[in-house]
Amino acid sequence: MEILNALALFANFVVVPATAYGAQLALGALGVTLIFGILRFANFAHGELMSFGTMITILVTWFLQNMGVSIAPFPTALLALPIGVLAAISMALVTDRMVFRFYRKQRSNPIVFAIVSVGVMFLIAGIIRIVIGPADQSFADGQRFIIGAFDSRRALGLDEGIAIKQSQVITVVVTAIVVAWLFWFLQKTRSGKAMRAYSDDEDLALLSGINPERVVTICWVIAAALAAIAGTLYGLDKTYKPFIFLQILLPIFAATILGGIGQPVGAILGAFIVAFSEVTVTYAFKKFLAYLGPTDWAPEGLVQLLSTDYKFAVSFIILVAVLLIRPTGIIRGKVI
């Protein structure tokens, strides 16, 4: 029975939140890896693009809530999300036309693109701060829990329960649908095959009659949509903090590089490894070990490797380790 209590505790505070967090990172990492696979540069503005799409979703959500529109028990943000996706796509296409296209025509070095993306990042961040401000914003409504901790305790007959939030289930379901669609698109559609061919060999793709600007446009549309969805799901699961999306860029890049740059499957795998690493390393194992130890015994300290304030340090350590030990990532290659 004590072992079951320990497992329930571990599932409640590690497995369930890490799975939802990993799904959110996966969507973000997919956007980063698509941009790198097609345009060959690290887009540091991706985090703020996530924040921008989420901000528009929040503003539309507030408008719908004030109008009395809801889809209870589901969050109203799901109704507003398509507008947020369109806004993120518009922002991505505008910045590409006004900024990145110039450097693309000049065939600039990837480092130049990366530096330019930092400038775009600050621009988008400034717009966000002006529109919605720097404070935390809450926009989640509807049913909070699908399974409550007290209900699961009674159902399982244990001292520990497993709480599953509606936002966590929505995150996993939406991520599964989006990822399935993305892989179908890349493998089965003409546009997806053109993107893969362009990523594999740009010159050969041009000789085959593939329109590079069309490929680039589709890439930005997909990456921006993934960013808006990932940011909104992250905000629903936790809260919207304009500054957090700059920080979350570190685990996203760590997941991308760990899985293999330009590899969608690797991005997903890397995202879940990073998520479970962060959550596990910052979890306090005191109560967990108390269940596994002798009766009435518990460790003196929290048995926590790192404070939650330093969870992003885990991503940094993973990033450095991968670059030193296996720069190509888990899955070799730089193509889609």
From TrEMBL:
Xref: Pfam families: BPD_transp_2
Species of origin: Thalassospira profundimaris
Q: What is its main location?
A: membrane
Supply the alphabetized keyword list: Amino-acid transport, Cell inner membrane, Cell membrane, Membrane, Transmembrane, Transmembrane helix, Transport
Task: Spell out the protein name for this chain.
Answer: Branched-chain amino acid ABC transporter permease
- Protein localization: Cell membrane
Give the family per the record. Answer: Belongs to the binding-protein-dependent transport system permease family. LivHM subfamily.
Q: Which Gene3D superfamilies match?
A: ABC transporter involved in vitamin B12 uptake, BtuC (1.10.3470.10)
